[in-house]
Design goal:
The chain is built from 28 helices and 34 strands. It has a four-stranded parallel sheet with strand order 2-1-24-25, with helices on one face. A four-stranded antiparallel sheet has the order 6-5-9-17. It has a four-stranded mixed sheet with strand order 13-14-12-15. Strand 7 and strand 8 form a beta hairpin. Helix 22 packs antiparallel against helix 23. The N terminus is likely disordered. It binds one RNA strand through helix 8, strand 11, strand 15, helix 12 and strand 28.
Length: 846
RNA sequence: GCCCGGGUGGCGGAAUGGCAGACGCGGCGGACUCAAAAUCCGCUGUCCGAAAGGGCGUGUGGGUUCGAAUCCCACCCCGGGCACCA
């Protein structure tokens, strides 16, 4: 064994060698990753690669709002770590980036400045791209997709026409949010507390012809396929709730004549219920104010009151209607007509009420106040009968009872449900309804068709032409892309300039060739984000929007990363598009779900509140990078909190992270003052311990990267670095090979997290590129532990800790535990029971 | 109202039925320095104790278990989603 040599004149001051200066090394590495094309993958190669060696890691493409904000940085750091980790594992990793570049902020800026949104948007994209490069995020930039790019517009329009051709898009009249001040329709997001976010005018409801996707055709599949996705449970739950499947029965209530007998001259009133078992408690029926049979069923003496009620309800904005929750007064009106409760044969009054929605079920309900609180409130306000049909438990002092219990008051000559529990009674009542020919079982969904029209300029034009004679006609493929013109004037009213641009509006009918007019509505920007991930597989394709062979190789996305705010809209639309595009043959039939695994990272807040430009509490990551370096910022993001949770920017420990990187630098830089006391030859027990710790760290960090436990992985780096500091400062010095392996491994494990410093140090140590296939593998033999600390408890309280061989027998462990002095002191009397879990624990019960 | 998630030191957090508080921040002390910064080393839940040691301790109350931050029941508080969906 080599003698340890006490070094002479050891430099004890870290300034004696080159210090870690992120600004000196980071730009060089960022340029190098571009030059070396390390993170580019070629399709020719991919088509020859097994699927298991391919990964598609995707962070939700950003809206280009300018330089990155700290939330972006958090999001893209997580994605970047995975891209680098999989690359180091020798996989082909698709890491594309794109920009969701259509949308309101750019249009609003244009309205303010009078300038076209395109140069504005292009400048913002440049800024955001630059900040992403500055935090060291790596992409295959050749694959960049931008929503406002003419080729993307073209394929978006091709997809629209195909879905239209297949009947998955239709046009219908629909109520929209109308701002009288701006003379335009607003998206729901633009309505804040019932007011227009721009002009503060109260928003009105207005009916307009709008385009819709038939997403409801896919309701059941969207629900069923959630089961196979590795997505956070809460996202799946939110989607399930949004789809809102309910099982019940739809049946008819015969309309009664003045004697209470069923009329034969008019059809029964169709109602939908999930509780057919409560039919004996149906004491009235309610139609929505907009129900098509209101006129027919209103008797002459009630007409004025009904008209007034309808007018009131229709004039009310969404907000007004919601604000009436709780007060049942003036929320309904009697039509004067009666229906017949088919199970009792009795007459029940038919009301209108605004708590019944036209768009759900049949737009009419059977009201059962005994078992439904809204019906209870209404019955109480209008003096209607209340009959309980489910026995509430003893001591129940609520109003409507919605729980389980035996049926009561539920028998007639025709049907007897009394005594049955809810589920049984439901089945019996539904069977009876079907047997009587009154109606049938029915599944309803809350999911509505997706309204895609926007009366906006800065979006993808809907490729439709209106002809006086032939109506709405698809634009010919040869016209695509139909782009918004450049020579437009933005009106201060906010109205889309397309409405007044003759060059854009005037066209000819594809059927008859006569003058026709282009659709001026554009597509919801969620359309753009519903298939961009499919385009990434082959963004160069000029034959079709989607290259099926490439998509089959890359998709589904192995890891999708984004904010929880997209849990419903974007993620539901993307799933719908994937299914619909497969069904119309534009995308491979084998890919029915776009994202296999989803991770939703938390928000970055400021002082407990959401960060926003208007609050002026944003943090510019660029300044943080200037002050501490990109690696310190990345490390602070990873260290501060589990990725799924919201985080306050104040909790970021930038100084601590930078200090840690300095420590690593000092340990790893060749010529460091810390590594002068080195020896070779046979390793000592201390060396062997360090070597084992290195292998344990490999196993630990690999597992933590796989399960998104980045904060504990950072703790692992720090613990190991602390251990190495002790090791190199020990009096007998460090073993050269052991330390070399330990430090190189540490750098490799850290490389996905802090790529610049890891790359720099490793290159200086042995001229190799750490970012290539270098992921270390733990030697199982070195993970074996020979001694463990056995916990000895008395009555569950820890009384002693004894180091024992890890293969200790139960008998030996027990004997050892009983002989411990510390334990003896706590044993008064004979042990009643001894639990032995060798080698970890012995618990003595007295 | 319904449905989720969460409550652990001064702070961010760790611990997937077996040593509560890893790691970091902050704080305290020491070394180095003329001094400071930087750096390195140590201590740091709380109460009693000079110490050895011991008591208490994961929102509250109960339960299961040899053993509970972890599982079960009830409640309180915080955050989020949906909100007349029959």
């Amino acid at each position: 064994m080599a003698e340890s040599v006490a070094p002479e004149a050891t430099p004890s001051h870290p300034d004696d060698f080159e210090r870690y200066r992120p600004a000196d090394i980071e730009p060089r590495w960022q340029q190098r990753w571009l030059d070396d094309k390390t993170y580019e993958v070629d399709n020719e190669e991919i088509l020859q690669t097994d699927a298991e060696d391919i990964r598609f890691v995707l962070s939700m493409y950003p809206y280009p709002s300018g330089p990155a904000h700290i939330g972006h940085v958090r999001n893209y750091t997580f994605g970047d770590l995975l891209v680098r980790y999989h690359t180091m594992n020798g996989r082909k990793v698709l890491s594309p980036i794109g920009f969701d570049s259509f949308g309101l902020p750019a249009e609003n800026a244009a309205i303010k400045s009078g300038e076209h949104p395109r140069p504005f948007t292009d400048a913002r994209i440049e800024e955001l791209s630059s900040s992403l490069r500055r935090i060291g995020a790596v992409y295959d930039w050749r694959r960049m997709v931008k929503s406002h790019d003419p080729s993307y517009i073209k394929w978006n329009q091709v997809i629209f026409l195909r879905l239209y051709e297949e009947g998955l898009i239709y046009r219908k009249n629909s109520p929209v949010n109308w701002c009288p001040g701006c003379q335009t329709v607003l998206a729901n997001e633009q309505v804040v507390d019932g007011l227009c976010e721009r002009s503060d005018d109260p928003v009105e409801r207005r009916d307009m012809e709008q385009w819709f996707y038939r997403i409801t055709d896919y309701a059941q599949e969207l629900l069923d396929d959630l089961d196979g996705l590795e997505w956070p449970d809460r996202v799946k739950i939110m989607q399930r709730n949004w789809i809102g499947r309910s099982e019940g029965a739809e049946f008819g209530l015969p309309i009664a004549d003045s004697d209470g007998n069923p009329r034969t001259d008019t059809p029964p009133l169709a109602v939908y219920t999930t509780r057919p078992d409560t039919s004996f408690g149906m004491t009235f029926a309610v139609m929505s104010p907009e129900h098509p049979r209101v006129d027919e069923l209103t008797i002459p003496s009630q007409i004025d009151e009904v008209r007034a009620f309808q007018k009131d309800a229709s004039g009310k904005s969404e907000i007004d209607r919601l604000s009436t929750v709780g007060s049942a007064d003036k929320r309904g009106v009697f039509t004067g007509s009666y229906a017949i409760n088919p199970v009792t044969g009795g007459s029940i009054p038919i009301y209108l009420a605004d708590y019944v929605l036209t768009t759900y079920g049949t737009g009419a309900i059977m009201a059962v106040p005994g078992q439904d609180q809204r019906d209870w409130d209404f019955a109480t306000a209008y003096g209607l009968d209340i009959v309980r049909t489910v026995q509430p438990p003893e001591g129940f002092d609520g109003e409507a009872f919605t729980g389980d219990g035996p049926a009561i008051n539920s028998a007639s000559d025709a049907l007897d449900l009394n005594g049955m529990e809810v589920a049984e009674a439901k089945a019996a009542a539904t069977d009876w309804i079907e047997a009587q020919g009154l109606g049938e079982r029915r599944v309803n969904f809350r999911l509505r068709d997706w309204l895609l029209s926007r009366q906006r300029f800065w979006g993808c034009p809907i490729p439709i032409v209106y002809c006086d004679e032939h109506g709405a006609q698809p634009a010919p493929l040869s016209d695509l892309p139909i782009e918004a013109p450049d020579d437009v004037e933005f009106l201060p009213t906010g109205e889309s300039p397309l409405n007044h641009h003759r060059g854009f509006l005037d066209t000819t009918c594809p059927v008859c060739g006569n003058p026709a007019r282009r659709e001026t509505d554009t597509m919801d920007t969620f359309v753009d984000s519903s298939w961009y991930f499919l385009r990434f597989a082959d963004p160069w394709n000029d034959e079709a929007p989607i290259n099926k062979a490439a998509v089959e190789k890359f998709l589904p996305v192995d890891q999708y990363i984004g904010g929880i705010e997209h849990a419903i809209l974007h993620l539901m639309y993307a799933r719908f598009f994937t299914k619909a595009l497969a069904d119309v043959g534009l995308s491979p039939s084998t890919i029915r779900e776009p994202m296999k695994r989803l991770f939703t990272q938390g928000m970055v807040r400021m002082g407990g509140g959401k960060m926003s430009k208007s609050k002026g509490n944003t943090v510019a990551p660029e300044e943080t990078v200037d002050a501490h370096g990109a690696d310190a910022l990345r490390l602070a993001i990873l260290q501060v909190k589990p990725p799924a949770e919201d985080v306050d920017y104040e909790d970021f420990q930038l100084d601590g992270c930078e200090r840690f990187l300095q420590r690593v630098w000092r340990l790893a830089i060749p010529g460091s003052d810390l590594t002068t006391n080195m020896r070779s030859g046979e390793p000592t027990p201390a060396d062997i311990e360090i070597d084992k710790a290195t292998h344990h760290l490999i196993a630990r960090v690999t597992g933590e990267y796989e399960r998104w436990s980045y904060n504990t992985a950072v703790a692992g780096f720090m613990e190991f670095t602390n251990a190495l500091y002790k090791y190199v400062q020990a009096s007998d010095g460090a073993h050269d090979e052991t330390l070399d392996f330990a430090v190189n491994t540490l750098l490799e494990l850290m490389a996905p997290a802090v790529p610049h410093i890891s790359g720099e140090l490793r290159e200086r140590r042995d001229q190799s590129n750490i970012h290539l296939a270098h992921w270390p593998v733990a030697d199982p033999a070195k993970l074996v532990v020979d001694t463990v600390t056995m916990i000895v408890q008395v009555n569950g309280k820890v009384r002693d800790r004894i180091d024992v061989p890890s293969e200790i027998s139960e008998a030996d462990a027990e004997a050892l535990a009983l002989s411990s002095e510390a334990v003896q002191g706590h044993l008064d009397g004979e042990p009643k029971k001894i639990i032995v879990r060798a080698p970890k624990l012995v618990n003595i019960v007295v």
